[in-house]
Amino acid sequence: MFPNHHFIGMHWIWWLILAAAILLLFFDIIPHRSQSTPEEDALEILKRRYARGEIEREEYEERKAAITDNNH
Predict the structure, then answer these.
(1) Do the Cβ atoms of 70 and 49 come closer than 8 Å?
(2) Which one has a higher pLDDT value, 56 or 14?
(3) pTM higher than 0.85 for the full model?
(4) Are the beta carbons of 42 and 70 closer than 8 angstroms?
(5) Which of 70, 38, 68 is nearest to 60 (CA)?
(6) Angle at 43 between CA 48 and CA 71, to 5 degrees
(7) What are the distances in angstroms from CA 7 to CA 13, 22, 51?
(8) In this structure, are residues 42 and 67 in contact, taking their beta carbons and an 8 Å threshold?
(9) Angle of helix 57-71 relative to helix 38-52, nearest 10 degrees?
(10) Under a CB-based contact definition with an 8 Å cutoff, are residues 46 and 60 in contact?
C-alpha cells in the first residue's frame, strides 16, 4: 500500500504541523510587532495633529521638545 511506509506511525503529524505553519504565514495570522518606539509614535501623532490644525505651532514645539527630551 505505502512502499516507503512514511505515513505509518507519527510521520503524518509533521506534515500537519508544516501545513499549519504555512497557512499561518500565508494568511498573515501571526501578528507583526511594531519596529517603532513609543516616542516615535507620539511624535508622529503630534505631527499629524499639527498638520490637521488641531494644535498651534507653540504647543507643537513645546510638546515636541518634551517628547524628544524624554528620549535622551
Answers:
(1) no
(2) 56
(3) no
(4) no
(5) 68
(6) 175
(7) 9, 20, 62
(8) yes
(9) 170
(10) yes
